[in-house]
Amino acid sequence: MINQVKHKLILLTIFLITGCNSLPFNSSDDGDSESKEVCASKPPTELVLKDVTEITLKSSLAKIEEGRINSRETIGYRFQGKSGQKLQFELTEGVCIWIIDPSDEIFEQSTLTQDGNYLVQLAAKEGKQVNYSLRMGIDIKSSSPKTTSTPSPVASTKPTPSPSPTPSPSPTPSPKNELSKQEALDIVQGWYDAKPDIFGRSYQGSKVKKYATGKFYYEKVEKCDNGVCGGSVGWLKHYGCHYTYDFSDIKRVVSFSTNNSSATLIINVRERLELHGPRSAGCGKGANTYQKNVTYWLEKEGTTWKINEYKVGS
């Protein structure tokens, strides 16, 4: 499909923004003013964390992806950057790009100003549907002149025997007892995915055990209150209430810390849910949408990490 369309690629280096709401690399270089399509100052849609592709940028302009894109959808990538690094990219004409820094602000400079995760979002210009190609690199070095393949001699008065080749070490994973940020995120994402079954009409409380331990488990399926036992699930079942969820989107990871026995994950969540059932039980009040930070504390149960407690709000 890509070969059917001629791509006009423009090498774009991010410059300082000057008196314009749109990023400078989103402006058209076409001299015909009637053919210029304007990129909005922000992406047309929000991305959820699970829909963002993790990428690692190298010190060369490397292909990230190519495909088909329109103006009503946003494609997202995320990379780790460090303050002081310089970013370059090459993108098909007719496609808008926005870069969001770790503070959730539109990034408008040629040099990264913070350490952390940077989000790249793409969308076609208004009313367009095009094939696109994205190439990116960081701290790209200029090509050196070609030289002969003979290595420079080592300054030494006598020959030094070459050491036996040593394999390059593999990246060191997290210590076995420690929980990585991605593992913690997977546990919490699994919990959100299971909530419609646990607190829905089927009351599948048995699924709680997979994600919960300690206080969190007790409150969901064991706690007794005013003669009603079974925790939150038991209360819903007793009064004939249940939840439905239109969406439960983890927007971003705010912070993460861990040690050998516990971990803390703070995420920003946007959720829309509705409690159905008799009003006499306090249910049936209509749908509610919120976006807040939620803190999850995780601990090990045997050899398995689970959620021990949580708190909504900072």
UniProtKB/TrEMBL annotation:
Q: Which Pfam families match?
A: ARC6-like_IMS (PF13355)
Annotated region (Disordered), positions in chain: 141-180
Indicate what this protein is called per its UniProt record: Plastid division protein CDP1-like IMS domain-containing protein
The record's PROSITE patterns line, in alphabetical order, gives: PROKAR_LIPOPROTEIN
Q: Where is the composition biased (Pro residues)?
A: 160-174
Regions of compositional bias (Low complexity) in chain numbering = 141-159
Organism's domain of life?
Bacteria
Q: Which residues form the Plastid division protein CDP1-like IMS domain?
A: 184-307
